[in-house]
Amino acid sequence: VLTCLARSALAGGAVAVRANGPDVIRQMRAAFSEPILGINKVDRDANEVYITPTFSAAREIIEAGADFVAIDATMRPRPDGRSTAELITDILSHYNIPIVADISTADEAVAAEKMGAAFIATTLAGYTSYSLNSSSVSLELIREISSSVSIPVIAEGRILSPEEAAMCIQAGAWAVVVGSAITRPRLIARRFAEALASIEHGS
């Protein structure tokens, strides 16, 4: 199912896919040649840091065929006790692969670039206890990060419409990752239903 969704998104104009887990990535790699940004969510219920939190988690998705590997690059403690810098060093010493740093603040973005990340993604903005929580994408954060780092910035998180995606690019993002607004029909249907619920017929 996920591979079919990915192929549909690519047919619609997407240029790459962000996918979770070695099995899914392996299936997608066999189905198409477009770039795969891989993540590996591990022990999600047990740890705050669960997006590719360890070297072994990264190795699984790299060897499954991911072209990029995204990791949690926030300031929170990792489940294996190692630092984000150590994880990035471990990955780069074993594989020639670009690392995408999923961050929640501009300070984390600056730090991730110094550690060797090739891309910054705003994936975790609003999802850490110390980052601003919002129901919409933070254009101000994108502007701040874009002016603070020299590597490309990927806008991700709470992007619900083409208009919001365009605003992210205008704010300085190099690319945009759209998740639920494309891949989760129940949430898409709910947004339409909620928008129409308070509208009277003929008004």
How is this structure best described in words?
With 203 residues, the chain is α/β, with parallel strands linked by helices. It has a single domain, classed as TIM Barrel, CATH 3.20.20. 42% of the residues lie in helices and 13% in strands. It is built from 9 helices and 7 strands; from the N terminus they run H-E-H-E-H-E-H-E-H-E-H-E-H-E-H-H. The chain has helices at 2-11, 22-31, 55-64, 84-94, 106-115, 139-146, 162-170, 180-183, 185-197, and strands at residues 17-20, 36-39, 68-72, 99-102, 119-121, 153-156, 175-177. Strands 1-2-3-4-5-6-7 form a 7-stranded parallel beta sheet. Helix 1 (2-11) crosses helix 2 (22-31) and helix 5 packs parallel to helix 6 (139-146). It is globular, with a radius of gyration of 17 Å.
User: Uncertain spans, ≥5 residues at pLDDT below 50?
Assistant: none
The CATH class name reads: Alpha Beta
Order of helices and strands: HEHEHEHEHEHEHEHH
- Under the CATH scheme, which architecture would be assigned? Alpha-Beta Barrel
Q: Helix share of residues? A: 40-55%
Mean pLDDT: 95
Q: Helices and strands: which structural class?
A: alpha/beta
Count of discrete alpha- or pi-helical segments spanning 4 or more residues: 9
Shape: globular
Strand content: 5-15%
Per DSSP E runs of 2 or more residues, the count of β-strands stands at 7
Largest sheet: 7 strands, parallel
Instruction: Note the gap between the termini.
Output: 40 Å
